[in-house]
Amino acid sequence: MRRWILVAGVAVAALLATACGSGGGGGGSSSGSGPVTLTIWHNYGTEQNATALQNLAKAFHKLHPNVTVNIVSQPADNYFALLQAAAVSKTGPDLAVMWTGLFTLQYKNFLTNLQGKIPAADLARIDPNALKWTSDQFSSANGPYVIPLENQFYIGFYNKAAFAKAGVSAVPTDWSQLFAACKKLKAAGYLPMTYGNGGQPLGAEFYPWYDMSYMMIGSYPVNDWQKLYSGQIAWTAPANAAQLASWARLKSSGCTNSDVLTKTNNLGDFETGKAAMMIDGTWDTQKFTQALGANVAAFVPPFSSAPIKGVVDYAGDGLSMTTYSQHQPQALQFLEFMTTPQAATIINAAGLIPAITGTTTSNPVNQEMLNFVSQQHLTVYPMLDNVVQPEVVNTGSKVLPSVLNGTMSPSAALQNMQTTLGQLPASKRGTSYP
Amino acid sequence: MSTVQAAQQPAATAVAARPGRRRGGSRLARRRRRAGLLLSLPAVIVVVALLGLPIGQAVYYSMTTWDGISATWIGPSAYSTALSDPILWRVLQNNALLLLSIPFAIGIPLSIAALLHEHVRGWRFFRSVYFLPTAISWVVIGMVAVQFFALSGLMNSMLRLVGLASLQTDMLAGQRSALVALAITFVWSMLGTNTIIFLTGMATLDQTLIEAARVDGLSRWQIFFRVTVPLLKRFIQFSFVITVISAFSALFSLIFVMTNGGPGFGTTTLEFFVYQSAFAQGQFGTGALYGIILFVIMIIVGLVQLRLIRSEDGEGW
Amino acid sequence: MTPLTAAGTGRPTAAVTRKRLRMGTLFALMAVIAVVMLYPFYYMLNNAFRTQSQFEQQHGHSAVSWRQLFTELPVGRELLNSTIICVTAIALILLVATTAGFAFAKLRYRGSGTVFLAVVAALMVPLQSIIIPEYVNLGKLGLINTYLGAIMVYVALGTPFATFLMATYYRGISDDLIEAAVMDGLGYGRTFLRIALPLSLPAIATVTVLQFIQIWDDLLVGLLFLQNPQQRTITVGLAALSAGRTTSIPVLMAGSFISALPAIIVYLIFQRHLIRGLTLGMGK
């Protein structure tokens, strides 16, 4: 017995020793002008944004040789819970990738407001529309929490060759033109629109908020989207139900594949030219231009009964500084660097659209998207899922796909979303954003 | 049925032996109790400090708005608000339906273990192979399942192949059928774990009892149901508890990859609901609240089951 | 089977054919199940040898993703971290659970049944509801970003399961055997070490194998308690491959395959012990 306890004691002691020996990997805080390691966390996985960030760090290190940038990829699925936990124990990074919109506001208690910390001249270079969605009450005057990395579009892609072959001469701009185009494409042997769960975050079923954003663009001017947040416009409003009903007709009229929720290779369908249209986002542009060359082009999903007048052009993510960072001066330097033309060049080179005013991009399809705003003067909308409550987004993500699939009525789905909204405390559905 | 009696023999002797050992405060009995206390102490300390304490905290935080840093007290009304949410009840319905898969998740491995124990040709190989998928991450299992159940997937191709094309379905696109698909994947994923639990149990079987039953002329089925299963009762009970726990609290990743809780709320179980509505959004107070509800439900299911077995058996824990 | 014997003894031959038929059917059934169980491995390997676009189009093969895996992730380091954490945690779980399981099964004291039920009840604690309080508590002790912190959580999560299984197993050992050993003057401690522990090898093997997989594949604890990439486990490393919008599935498959191997090895090493216990006799 006694020997047994002794063995246990030795085991525990040995364990403590290994733990202490290897434990101190955390941020040893060194201040002053000596060498400094800036830690950045991101949830980019291996996508282009990660490349952009790496290259930004390299360029920054060249300008500030005493600052080493340590980039850590954190799992995307639990990223925000991790950031929040790390804020509790103050073991998090100096700079963290943050999503904009309500995400930023939800986590702002450990993010630094950058007004007055970054020179106004630097901030002025950034697309003002991008800064707006990272500020309190979504008003730029209150100062941003995030320096955006890129502008993203939720957008439609179409195959020019397919359109030509089917005799679709003009890109559809409303529901009826879309249905007409579908008919022609189908007759020519194409799958008009492909839906499925490829091109979505890992695993999730078909993600409906790209489409939903355009349905709500078709219904409301951009300033009215706040009323979806506050409940002044109920989700169950007839206008919304009508939009969803038209959307569901895409499948029932044969404009889509029959397995809209579960098709795993919808990206492949589009890349191989089998499908003529797909609703997706800028993160897949490069992939499509590689597979289809000059045949791929962007179009605004025409989910509207009048010609569609808006486009989702939104700085979805960027970097913010934690309040507990031990290297604030260096972290701010990095954020300033992100507003420079040099940074814009690096971001562009990674295939992204920099969130800098008057920017152009080298990918022609991405440039088409920018032209929707700069030349066709479409109204810029945010991503709807970033500006309505995450709880409602969750519910919508579950029920909306079934509407497209024809297994749930628009009104039932919208009722679910309305119920979720109603369960929220009044402070989370006010007439102004938090 | 002399063999069946024989099967119960060990338990009987144990019971008979007890009163003798219980007698008064003999020195031996006192030493035994002291050794028992001492040997169980480390486990108790671990459980109290690292599980009991946080549960207590979670109960407190469940009645607050807690984000990890600051908490505002709401009080017990937090529970009545949560319980009045119709979506919560929809979610609980899924948990209840998922329980229906438990008999399969236990019955199939039990039969497989019995077959392996009978040393079918190649049993060593099969024993290895059946367990291997348990080592694969949930993400992969989920992805394979998605491919398998897809309309253009393996399941439907096989149906076409055997001329049952009319039965093809897009299982993951319907609320109930997606839950069935999830349950099938779950049963599949429990196969390895439960099979080795039963194999472990069979290691405690007294082979002479089975031999005796065979000599008595019982058929294999009779031996299985009248000798093996009763002797494995404790292990079946154990695997029941483990299986329920897995169904209620270990399927998060699988659901995440297979369906993300949809379509509708078809595959959102309480565990997934906890995660999505609270943990992922940093509302740890709400997370704690749903977590406590889940905990209470699991305790009820688990303890009711332990009670049932205990009352039959006459000497519980 | 020569015709001669068949003619000589008619009935045994019928029995033999029936037996063969039965064994054949069983074998076929087992083989089908084996294919079903092995399919995910085929899926992993098939897609690991693809690029992302080959995966999307389900056409063509390439080894690029394997190279990418090793440049994206410090695979060796992460495997080492996982191993250190798994081995230590399991050793501690076994230490705590074999003793407690033995005590609950064989050395009952007043209230031991209730204590046991409380330990089993702890098995039902959903990780998501306690992990943040746990994180805050261990954070106060300065155990975030130490192996020890993560190990403590794993030990806590594994102990109820392991204690439950060990107790279940020890109940199958005859009381007389234990009593006899104690009468022989071994004492309870040594009786446990010399008699009970060797007999419970199958259960120990089961706990080891199942806990190994549980801990090895865990994401949440590793993610929260080991935030530094230097201490990160392979499972967290693989999860970091996935991104908000797109994930390179082939790289993930290659990583998942590598990550599955250690658990398989552990199982193959321990599986013979799953059966072996009975040859040592169960006190009969």
Tally of helical runs of chain A: 19
Shape of chain A: globular
How much is the radius of gyration of chain C in Å?
Answer: 25 Å
In total, how many domains does the architecture of chain C comprise? 2
Beta-strand percent range of chain A: 5-15%
The unreliable regions of chain A are 1-32
Share in β-strands of chain C: under 5%
Distance linking N and C termini of chain A: 62 Å
For CATH, the homologous superfamily of the largest domain in chain C is named as: MetI-like
CATH architectural designation of the largest domain in chain C: Orthogonal Bundle
Number of strands of chain C: 0
CA-based gyration radius of chain A: 24 Å
Question: Order of SSEs of chain A, N→C?
Answer: HEHEHEHHHEHHEHHHHEHEEHHEHEHHH
Major beta sheet summary of chain A: 10 strands, mixed
Indicate the CATH topology of the largest domain in chain C: MetI-like fold
Please give the alpha-carbon distance between the first and last residues of chain C: 40 Å
Helical residue percent band of chain C: over 70%
Global structural class of chain C: mainly alpha
Task: State the helix count of chain C.
Answer: 14
Could you write a compact summary of the structure shown?
The complex is a heterotrimer of chains A (434), B (317) and C (284). Chain A has helices at residues 2-23, 48-63, 79-89, 102-106, 120-123, 128-132, 160-166, 175-187, 209-219, 225-230, 238-252, 266-271, 285-292, 328-337, 341-349, 364-374, 384-387, 390-405, 410-423, and strands at residues 36-42, 67-73, 95-99, 147-159, 191-193, 275-281, 296-299, 310-321, 353-354, 379-381.
